Amino acid sequence: MFSKIDAKKLLLDNKRPLPEYTLKSLREKILLEWTYNTNAIEGNTLTLSETKVVLEGITVGGKTLREHLEVINHQQAISYVEDIVRKEEPMSQWQIKNIHRLILKGINDDYAGVYRDQQVLIAGASHTPPPHYQLDSEMEALMNWYEKEATALHPIVRGTMLHAIFVGIHPFIDCNGRTSRLLLNLELMKSGYPPIIIEVKHRLAYYESLDEAIAKKNYNKFIELVASATEKSLDLYLSVLD
């Protein structure tokens, strides 16, 4: 499944280090589209252009404070993820909580970076997250899986499964989706892949394949969706460099 992607990744690796200003422009483009799409999937009504304006520090009339904070916070969370990659820090629950804290900062400070203390349901999903009193053991099991079995997996499979298992646990009251997509990209970036964007126009396929991965432990469709997004991101980088 990954032979073509691996070949494109090798081409990109052979072009490193990337030109400074090319890399800067690619980062700005991906940061904008990543932030717009991940928030739009969750119902944020800011357009791509409005998201760009908010990232530049300008308020958009008629939009809520929460929608503005979702953009600003996600930008800061991306910077934190990039810092983790740069420092080659190992994955930890502390990191996951920090990512979530940045996303929910100013929106719901009581639950920012804090595991939920009550039961939640996921609208439209066929699975029910575990009760809050099992979260510590569920997250510990996730970290054990990540540190052992996951190490033998292709980075795309590892990142996709990390995303799905995390969402299945649903450790936070809010913003599990945004956190999981940041964790997916964190895992890809650690292995030298550019960040990917799950576009809002693919929201239905994303939710359906994610639900199947969690409820039936069938990750195939979700892996295919992530692999397609990975190839698209590689193509963007290679097209600019060529």
TrEMBL record:
GO terms for biological process: cell division. Gene3D superfamilies: Fido-like domain. The keyword Phosphoprotein does not apply. Pfam families: Fic (PF02661). The record marks 42 as: Important for autoinhibition of adenylyltransferase activity. GO terms for molecular function: ATP binding. The active site is at residue 170. ATP binds at residues 174-181, 206-207. Residues 91-228 form the Fido domain. Keywords: ATP-binding, Cell cycle, Cell division, Nucleotide-binding. This is Cell division protein Fic. It comes from Paenibacillus montaniterrae. The lineage of its organism: Bacteria, Bacillati, Bacillota, Bacilli, Bacillales.
